[in-house]
Automatic annotation (TrEMBL):
<dbReference type="InterPro" id="IPR036188">
    <property type="entry name" value="FAD/NAD-bd_sf"/>
</dbReference>
<dbReference type="GO" id="GO:0008924">
    <property type="term" value="F:L-malate dehydrogenase (quinone) activity"/>
</dbReference>
<dbReference type="GO" id="GO:0047545">
    <property type="term" value="F:(S)-2-hydroxyglutarate dehydrogenase activity"/>
</dbReference>
<comment type="pathway">
    <text>Carbohydrate metabolism; tricarboxylic acid cycle; oxaloacetate from (S)-malate (quinone route): step 1/1.</text>
</comment>
<keyword id="KW-0816">Tricarboxylic acid cycle</keyword>
<protein>
    <recommendedName>
        <fullName>Probable malate:quinone oxidoreductase</fullName>
        <ecNumber>1.1.5.4</ecNumber>
    </recommendedName>
</protein>
<dbReference type="InterPro" id="IPR006231">
    <property type="entry name" value="MQO"/>
</dbReference>
<keyword id="KW-0285">Flavoprotein</keyword>
<dbReference type="GO" id="GO:0006099">
    <property type="term" value="P:tricarboxylic acid cycle"/>
</dbReference>
<comment type="similarity">
    <text>Belongs to the MQO family.</text>
</comment>
<keyword id="KW-0274">FAD</keyword>
<dbReference type="Pfam" id="PF06039">
    <property type="entry name" value="Mqo"/>
</dbReference>
<keyword id="KW-0560">Oxidoreductase</keyword>
Amino acid sequence: MTFISTTRSADVVLIGGGIMSATLGAFLKKLEPSWSIVLFERLDDVGLESSDPWNNAGTGHAAYCELNYSPQAKDGSVSPAKALGINEGFQLSRQFWSHLVNDGSIGAPSNFIHTVPHMSFVIGDAHADFLKARYEALHPNALFSSMEYSEEPAQIAEWAPLVMGGRGAGRVAATRVAEGTDVDFGRLSRELVGFLAGNGVEVNYGTDVTNLERSRGGWSVATKHKASGERGGIHAKFVFVGAGGGALHLLQASGIAESKGYGGFPVSGQFLRSTDESVAAQHNAKVYGQASVGAPPMSVPHLDTRYVNGKRSLLFGPYAGFSTNFLKNGSLWDLPGSIRLGNIIPMLAVGKDNMDLTAYLIKEVAKSRDAKVQALREYFPEAAGDGWELITAGQRVQIIKKSASKGGELQFGTEVITARDGSIGALLGASPGASTAVPIMLELMQRCFPKNFKGWEPKFSEMMPGYGLKLNENADLAAEIAADTATSLGLAAPAR
């Protein structure tokens, strides 16, 4: 690792040390070991922004429990399509991690992944009817065949005792997938970057990338070392902007036509955290509920078991808020500094059309600690409020893009942006993000390295046996791969 780069040129420059850059770097080092790669991270270690487990609102997304990935239509039906797509993507991520563990590229999987059942839990007739419709839409599919459904309080109490203890009468419903996981993407990022650093990749910490300009055969990348103030630069044939909320500013600096019209809407959040081991020992699940009316999708309440540095804790939230920072360690000028002539109309249109979201965020910001504890008690009725610490999570910058019909639209997913010549790529947006880093980076590589990609595909199939296939349409293969990756990663395998 280095702190001030002296390298003048590289085949690949990775900006940002989170799970996206780390995943892309690991792929490229496996595929093209002779390529020179340089990584720049503005903080003093990797995985400290959105990939950090205390900043990451959802860990181990597989669409088992996140109800916003399978919304109910006006006619009461539930489409499984989006949930299936996310689950397929997560299965690819698991296969890649399994490959890296098996060949010794990264350390023990217990450092970053644990089995934690995924549950959805709802209260009241309307929500229970929805959850049952969702179960009936998902359960027949191979990837969701192990999902269980119950409205029996005793059964739900067995799955999640804290959720049911002290709960009054009334209809409740829950689904459960026993083989769900909790993933520490901060630790996984460090494992991946450790592999890169041990195989010739230069990793620069405490270094901001301040500008991107086209130069002959690639890009001129300007840098500034934060501690010393020393400025530098490097020429790159290819640049990946994996800087989380900071990606939009760098895309704008690049001037590529494909970045025009994009804006960002930052949403902050807080969580209540309990590190009391006696409490954490009573809850082994990620329990997701229904979002409040007007709440953004990333604000779905959930009571999570988390494993961080080998210690089991509980997390509840999020409580959404608003800050003009694009990064947790960013600047209040991030949002106003992102406004351009090309995106001001979409941004104004989004502001006009999302007044309910604005009102929701104001309401959330104004919530007292007592109100936050009361929200916790909807999911953990007997919670002792003084045993929970209020922490600030990472920033999420939602995509704003042009819309022919509305002028601008606010989107809550992720989007890969690449230049037409494939010399630069970036990722904007948030959810489901980290959990589908592998398929996202596969898409980016296909778009940015079209001449290499076909030749890489046999290697992809070696790394990920489900590559290029729909596991949901191949039940036997899905079961075989699930069992193999569970064994490699030390996880529970789905019941058959």
